[in-house]
């Protein structure tokens, strides 16, 4: 490649470089030791090792060209090459295009300037065909060009960065270069004659972690497809690891988890406070600054985050102070004139926030004023914000009238009161000790409101958390849940939305509504609110409305339990938005078929157990026990295992601290029961111990009536067990495990998400292989490798597809066999790589017809079972099975006439032609199409599972296995001509090619004579005219003559139905020719074909 001209010192270089060619102006040199027999001996090994190990020479190519001028000691490097062929091209170009011109110049300085300008122009021209840009740093540009040539990846693959590091091959470190690109992790090393080239796709990574041991102080461990790779000796290992983690997680979401990829919040900031904002918010700016805390009289240092409609602040210590300010509540924004660089934001409720030491504060004030102007106009008539006020009044008074109006207009059935206030109103006349404690809690919160404000813009401090840990008062629970979860922001931004959704979802009937109806009376059945139509109706409306809003989730078990608790303390519309906050923001990816989010947090929980409770880890032989036990803890926030009066305290903490509160409480519960668990001999005993513990958790301060409390209903036999108060348990979890940081949880989630998704993918693969192996003769190992290649081709199709970054034809909600499907273009690539018939001249047509044959439901997609069945016949089928496959490829519905638009490309089809032809199907009556569609997808009609349709489909599949060759339709004239041509193409290049041609000519003649004899009984016209060009007089086929009848056939449609052949006729005729039987029955090494496909699958895309 051409290099930016740089001076080199030739005297020092002579020890490492040898002269190859030279003239008056240029010198071609070879690196000592390269290109010599035996690798140049010890010199070559040492030089090669130096080139790879030392950073200063790591990018040295074995060949280079220097520019020199007569009588000058200055040399400029202008080109380098990885091999002699590349550098020779550069040298010849210089001799032909530059040397003649240089003689015109008078001075050496002019010659040097001309050469430098010419080389820079070549570099710019070369950059047009590469992702290397002129403004890239020179070293990065060189590294990028080396990366493109070394690994042979498609030119669309974008290099992100590269690092010098060591790769551990066993116990031997190999110094080299690690390249991180958008889809691959690549490593190259050359050490003492040993070359190491490693390419790992990010979507194959199942584990990525930083490790350390006796040998490696600190390294990065990458596990891919069961193989472990270790990289160490990084200059900035934390930075490298973070980037690798981001690239791996991006690939995993994009390929395997596209639903999360689509819904991935763009507001991705380390501040936990931003997770309380609507998911539509986009993070615009982050500023480091100080916030004045008036009631504590000090400035706290932290970060201010600005989105479209909110200003958020969180202190460096997240527990110290945090604030959310909706721009719709802002009245004024000012700046101070002193040197403090302060921004003052005034909001409703006579409250002001002062941010100081803000960089570029003047520009920030101007931007915020502009935002507030637009926002205040937008929310002028619809603001439903909780006002910031020191008075302990109901924060929803301002919007009560409007909310009720919207609800009456859309649906008069929506409840406007929390169920707890309806079924358990507080009696202020009879105050017992519990009610007095409840009033004291309320008073504590009122004092906090007077100091910190009330509503969305209130200060959230350590004192706030302390009050939450003690338990939120019954009368304030709904309000504070809305506030801490951020649901109040969603509701404020969507006034009247819930009532409209309720109206639209009324009367809908689908799978989700059926499941909801089934679970309605299983939701807190012991509570009076859900023993009446009032509570059941409210629960039905909320769950149905959410299923209507988010059909991807629809309804999941555990949502009914959670929603019933929300309805107890929040109004119906508020309960709906709380459910939205939980399902879409606070517990993402929990409530769907694969519950990936819950499984990831299970893995995080196991990791925390290993860190904080090592003695328990040592005792338990199988850590999956904790996952199976704690799954319900995470899905229902402990509501399903704790008494209701205790569970609501856990929900209090969850809405304030998120998943961190659940993880902390889980650790505290295991710690509290540590001795009992260590004494257990098996899992069943451990489950019993934990269940007994949960039954004895109480809430001594709960004001709920004893008829509602579940903890008070414990039998006398269990009263001997020690009771545990939920408040003490939560307080202990905060004291012991409160040091777990949000950043650590986020990092563990990212790390474990790779493992969880890859485990699910492995489960899918094993299930697919188990099903497919029953119908094919391929071994499990061959099926495994075939599945990997099949799936990889699907991935490669979208690695560099800018128009569609996420993977198509992948739906994890479908049955295992249907999760991955390929289209005709992807099938053609695999056909070329794997089919033993891919050497045929008309291989594109064969691939097209095979795809059409396999695509029985005409959706232009085939799954792995269909794909493997075709490969199995090609390699393991008998003579009859292979011939039957070829026969079916040349009759309807597989066969379609192919006309090539570009004759210069021969029989090659363009992607557009291929996709168009794959979509052409034999027309069928509309009723038959509808019946077939319903049969192929029995679950799609009204989203109901049609058992009869499934049984019918299963019966059809059994009948297909018993397909009789007599049932095959006859092959007409044009189809038989193409069938003969295909056989000729298959025999091309075979050692017995001449004998095979002679045999097929004999068979063709025999078939035609048989057909002629049969037709003469009905018609005097000879049938031989139609096939006169297929076989010559001597019986040997003449190349090109077979095409003439096919070209004439469209213009003479009357001849087409004149004769046809049955499969039995063709089979019987071919069986008489031993050469043909031997050709189709000879064994083909599938293992070698699979290995070749794996190595060439990526390189084949590079050539394109």
TrEMBL record:
Transmembrane segments: none
Residue ranges of every copy of the EF-hand domain listed in the record: 842-877
Superkingdom per UniProt: Eukaryota
Any single Pfam family the record assigns to this protein: GRAM
Cleavable signal peptide: none
Repeat listed as a keyword: yes
UniProt cross-references to SUPFAM superfamilies, sorted A to Z: EF-hand, Ypt/Rab-GAP domain of gyp1p
Keyword terms: GTPase activation, Repeat
Residues of the Rab-GAP TBC domain: 471-658
Protein name: TBC1 domain family member 8B isoform X2
Protein's gene: TBC1D8B
